[in-house]
């Protein structure tokens, strides 16, 4: 049955499509239809009620910006339009878009007859079919860079619709393009989708807006912490999309939670290509000769003949859904989505990032002796995340963030991370966002020197951290190179080496009284990351 595109106002309780099919708003209060009615009825909803008043901070970045919401649905259906809450004083032109997880634009529409502020809505020329369980992004573009942003957003649900559990609010500066950055402070930019599906169950009503969180706005953009000493989280950039050198509030990273390569990136799909090889042999995995990890003794063994896996997720990613699956000696020319427990990845090359979040769910996995990231270029998303994973012997390259810890049981050892950045990033070697218990970061090398948009090689400032052990690492670069604040429980910082004078503002920013701090040193190194001298003790400050 074809669906006609309608110009109807969101608050409508029900209406009829051009082909005579009745459509009911999920939030409408009316008697339950009979089972016979249900077979012919479509329902429609959005994440937020149509007349919801939004009390959120207004931001003006003086640059064009794309703002969006990442969402999923438990039912197959159709996206019929885009909504956004317009900030006062935003007279510019606005367009709305719908995107696949891989950054492909599925539909777009121009907003017309806008009001001065409040909810605006535009319908696509044709409804776009959505598949249950996949992640999509709905966005709008403001050519004036004026928008509303609310920090501390957790989730919204309505009917079968729900935002993703982490990094739901996303943004990107410039011309209209796939917004893939997000602010670790969890910003919501009040962008909504109009979703239609066939009836067959009861669902929650649209989410009311959360009360605005207190806090003083900063003068910067949607997504980063300030580069000046602050107690803010890099993992929680500020209130709006943003760019250096000020790291303030705004949408600022990426997402999270789902892999989304930037639009225009060509991914390989279809037939499985022939195996490739990485070249000459490297030292034995994990065998760094008693020294800190380097590119030569981490990552996929260079003697391994890699078998390329065809991408199975919209040409952008390879998704694993089999519990206990083992990927050994594979080359994935995109992102690796781990959506099953007990997955093991080893001796492999992943050109994108490795993520274990599927909507609100995450899955336990192990990755070892593998290379993560592109050989050239820089991806804003973390190389490996979110929680319940063990990473050993990795070489992470071409990522603005190395590792993300967003839950319990994250163990990272014997790995080498070479960071990069894009404008608006807040690069971190290891970053925490809504972290839980049992973080272990041991015997790793993190090189953040020469990264322009940086926060810290070790950035652990989440107030949900409980028990964290950071030992025997070699780090360099960043604003404050080692940051450990706001955490609880057993906090250990021992045996770490920091390259002397490699920081911008200072070596350490930490809650010293709460930390077991001992045996940390300032050092010099050579080009092979060998320590050439100990300058002196690294004191906590």
UniProtKB/TrEMBL annotation:
Residue stretches making up the DUF4082 domain: 57-191
Compositionally biased tracts (Pro residues): 205-215, 242-254
Entry superkingdom: Bacteria
Pfam families, A to Z: DUF4082
Compositionally skewed regions (Low complexity) per UniProt: 216-241, 255-271
Residue segments, region Disordered: 203-301
Protein name (record): DUF4082 domain-containing protein
Protein species of origin: Streptosporangium becharense
């Amino acid at each position: 049955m074809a669906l006609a595109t309608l110009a109807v106002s969101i608050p409508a309780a029900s209406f009829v499509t051009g082909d005579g099919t009745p459509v009911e708003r999920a939030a409408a209060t009316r008697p339950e239809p009979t089972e016979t009615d249900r077979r012919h009825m479509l329902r429609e909803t959005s994440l937020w009620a149509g007349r919801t008043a939004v009390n959120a901070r207004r931001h003006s970045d003086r640059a064009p910006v794309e703002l969006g919401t990442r969402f999923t649905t438990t039912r197959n259906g159709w996206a019929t339009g885009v909504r956004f809450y317009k900030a006062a004083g935003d007279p510019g032109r606005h367009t709305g878009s719908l995107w696949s997880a891989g950054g492909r634009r599925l539909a777009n529409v121009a907003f017309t007859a806008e009001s001065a502020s409040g909810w605006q809505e535009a319908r696509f020329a044709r409804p776009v079919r959505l598949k249950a369980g996949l992640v999509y992004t709905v966005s709008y573009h403001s050519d004036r860079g004026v928008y509303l942003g609310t920090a501390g957003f957790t989730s919204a649900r309505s009917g079968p619709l729900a935002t993703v559990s982490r990094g739901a609010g996303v943004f990107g500066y410039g011309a209209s393009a796939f917004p893939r950055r997000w602010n670790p402070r969890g910003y919501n930019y009040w962008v909504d989708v109009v979703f239609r599906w066939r009836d067959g169950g009861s669902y929650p009503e649209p989410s009311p807006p959360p009360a605005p969180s207190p806090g003083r706005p900063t003068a910067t953009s949607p997504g980063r912490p300030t580069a000046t000493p602050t107690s803010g989280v890099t993992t929680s950039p500020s209130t709006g999309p943003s760019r250096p050198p000020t790291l303030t509030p705004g949408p600022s990273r990426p997402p999270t939670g789902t892999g989304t390569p930037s639009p225009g990136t060509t991914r390989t799909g279809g037939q499985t290509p022939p195996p490739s090889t990485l070249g000459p042999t490297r030292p034995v995995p994990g065998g760094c000769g008693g020294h800190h990890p380097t590119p030569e003794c981490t990552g996929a063994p260079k003697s391994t003949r890699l078998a390329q896996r065809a991408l199975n997720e919209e040409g952008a990613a390879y998704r694993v859904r089999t519990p206990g699956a083992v990927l050994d000696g594979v080359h994935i020319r995109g992102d690796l989505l781990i959506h099953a427990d007990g997955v093991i990845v080893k001796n492999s090359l992943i050109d994108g990032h490795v993520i274990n979040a599927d909507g609100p769910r995450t899955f336990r996995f192990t990755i070892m002796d593998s290379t993560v990231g592109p050989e050239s270029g820089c991806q804003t998303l973390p190389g490996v995340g979110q929680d319940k994973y063990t990473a050993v012997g990795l070489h992470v390259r071409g990522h603005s963030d190395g590792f993300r810890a967003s839950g319990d049981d994250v163990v990272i050892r014997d790995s080498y991370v070479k960071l990069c950045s894009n404008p608006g990033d807040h690069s971190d070697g290891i970053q925490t966002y809504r972290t839980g218990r049992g973080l272990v970061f041991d015997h790793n090398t993190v090189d953040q020197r020469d990264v322009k948009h940086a926060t810290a090689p070790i950035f652990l400032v989440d107030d949900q951290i409980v028990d964290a052990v950071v030992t025997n690492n070699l780090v360099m670069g960043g604003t404050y190179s080692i940051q450990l604040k706001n955490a609880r429980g057993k906090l250990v910082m021992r045996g770490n080496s920091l390259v002397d004078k490699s920081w911008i503002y200072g070596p350490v920013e930490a809650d010293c009284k709460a930390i077991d701090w001992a045996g940390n040193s300032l050092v010099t190194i050579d080009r092979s990351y060998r320590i050439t001298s100990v300058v002196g003790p690294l004191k906590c400050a």
